[in-house]
Amino acid sequence: MPINIPKNLPAGEILANENIFIMDEQRASTQDIRPLNILVLNLMPEKERTETQLLRLLSNSPLQVNVELLHTASYASKNVSQSHLQQFYKSFNQIKNNRYDGMIITGAPVEQLKFEEVYYWKELTEIMEWTKTHVTSVMHICWGAQAALYYHYGIDKFKLSEKRTGVFQHQLVNSDVQLVRGCDDEFLAPHSRFTDVSEEEILAHDDLILVSTSKDSGPFTILSKDKKHVMVTGHLEYDATTLGIEYHRDMDNGLQPEMPIDYFPDNDPNEKPLNRWRSHAYLVFSNWLNYYVYQETPFSWK
Asked: Second label for 199, Cα 20 to 30 Å away, from 90, 98, 136, 152?
């Protein structure tokens, strides 16, 4: 089934070239069908790249998905044109009276700050509070996952001694939950962050389920028992080249970054990396849409 996106969104052409069925809002309005309405709060600096990555994963489902894009009004991103935001994004005030079947809150490059020091933290907490009554299920990614654990469950992050970047092996510790139905017991996933959360605190919390973890990169997938929140501490949405782009960018800026672990073939940054987490990413997103959004959301919001 198609994924419905704003007309002329640049990601649409990229996805169409990948043979992904794209339908713009104008054509979707003629379809006599109840699509899933998904809201994406995009906090990543390079918004167009993140849009494409997330839309690609949301498209792999027999369910028709209507996607709206949200940005913060309290902070203006410096890495995307204002015309792009004005044409394709909405602010919270514009959508706060709507109800959504699902929502994604992305990561953001602010993890070294305390949550309360983040410029748009007050606005984000207002949005996260609003999701309790206006969204069926929310997927939180990387810093977005840490923010959710802190705001909803009181679990704070802590700084790592060095940036955790690379592709790491993970293990399922709870394969019974529907989020990972069909997933392998072991899988790879990329990380790119300076902070982590405590596995012990997650295991001790009565409202949370640890779904997967890694001895090298810590807890990965966390689920609330009411299925309201899915928290993924890494970046399943990343393309094969994303970690490399970050590494070469930091090198060019003279930051002397650590080379991503188990990422470049033969640890040669001139070699093209492979995407070794794609199947797990598609399956997790499809399971979320099916079991936590489609099968939980009301047919008609009241």
From this structure: 136
Q: Tell me the average pLDDT of the chain.
A: 91
| Active site annotation includes 235 | yes
- 3-160+194-239+279-294 CATH fold: Rossmann fold (3.40.50)
3-state secondary structure of 199: helix
- For 75-97, write each residue's pLDDT tens digit: 877 777 788 888 899 999 999 99
Closest to 235 in 3D by CA, of 7, 34, 53: 53
Selecting among 170, 191, 235, 280, the annotated active-site residue is 235
For the chain, which residues make up each domain, given as ranges? 3-160+194-239+279-294
Structure-model confidence comparison of residues 184 and 63, the more confident one: 184
159 marked as binding residue = no
As a whole number of angstroms, the distance between CA 235 and CA 106 comes to: 9
Closest listed residue to residue 143, CA positions, set 117, 179, 112: 112
The region that residue 203 occupies, defined by phi over 0 for left and psi between -120 and 50 for alpha, beta otherwise, is alpha
Tokens of 87: 């044409």
